[in-house]
Amino acid sequence: MFSLYNPADEFPHDCSLRIGGLLPMTTIDYPNHLACVLFCQGCAWRCRYCHNPELISPQATGSISWSEVLAFLRKRRGLLEAVVFSGGEATLQPGLPDAMSAVREMGFKVGLHSAGIKPTAMRRVLPLCDWVGFDVKALEEDVALITGVNGSGRANWQSLEMLLGSGVDFECRTTVHWQLFDCQRLERLAERLAALGVQRFAIQLARPAKMLDKQLGSAVMPDEAAELWPYLQQLFDHFELRDA
Ligand code: SF4
């Protein structure tokens, strides 16, 4: 179906992204924009609640080629407004800057979902982003308890600091599983983010149905959370509670 179109004729970029999936249309992955989402293959962390474990292996062959993506986007010009690079962790792929440049040249805005796993890679792609959904795992000292990787807290917060200084529009989001978080830690995290100048914050409740760590069951939201949400609403210009 896509074989007649050769994107290399139009876009001289060397994009070798491994893409594990494509969501053709969404209204919720880039605020106020009709977008598609590219799920990039590979992640260096192992968050216990990860609900995309099939995207973690960097070796897995992407199910969609970059030329198929470009052909898809060419047909969606004027219909979609933005392309969101999600994961896995998209910034780990060396081809990401070229891929972002290519979709920009096609007239789409560029969105990125990232946990800033590698700050140097984050620095490289930020100038190419119009909006970032930044995954703050926890307070810096608690991040490794979630990701299972030493040093992940420093990387996560260093990338956040970079994002804050970049001028790129963004929101912070934190996935909460109640076996890994309690309300006190969540409150301290939110206060720290607000003090840094974060204006948009979302709590995403972990999906119990599909998680990397099968030992992690569903956990009941503590009663005191009912008092926390109104407080968080006061801390930020925009606060949302979502099912992840
Ligand atoms: S949830 Fe964690 S392990 Fe899963 S893709 Fe995101 S950063 Fe990687």
- Give Rg in angstroms: 18 Å
Helix fraction by DSSP (H/I, runs of at least 4):
25-40%
N-C termini distance: 34 Å
CATH-defined architecture: Alpha-Beta Barrel
Shape: globular
Q: Ranges with pLDDT <50 over ≥5 residues?
A: 1-14
Within the largest sheet, what's the order of strands?
A: 1-2-3-4-5-6-7-8
Question: What count of domains describes the coordinates?
Answer: 1
Mean pLDDT: 91
With helices defined by DSSP (H or I, 4 residues minimum), what is the helix count? Answer: 7
State the fourth-level CATH superfamily: Aldolase class I
CATH topology: TIM Barrel
User: What compounds are bound to the protein?
Assistant: iron/sulfur cluster
Which structural class fits the helix and strand makeup?
A: alpha/beta
Number of strands: 8
What does the largest sheet look like? 8 strands, mixed
Explain this structure to me?
- With 244 residues, this protein is an alpha/beta fold.
- The chain has a single domain (7-243), classed as Aldolase class I (TIM Barrel).
- It contains 7 helices and 8 strands, in the order ββαβαβαβααβαβαβ.
- The chain has an 8-stranded mixed beta sheet.
- Helix 3 (119-125) packs parallel to helix 5 (152-166) and helix 6 runs parallel beside helix 7.
- The chain is globular and about 50 Å long.
- It starts with 18 loop residues before the first strand and ends with a strand.
- The protein binds iron/sulfur cluster (SF4).
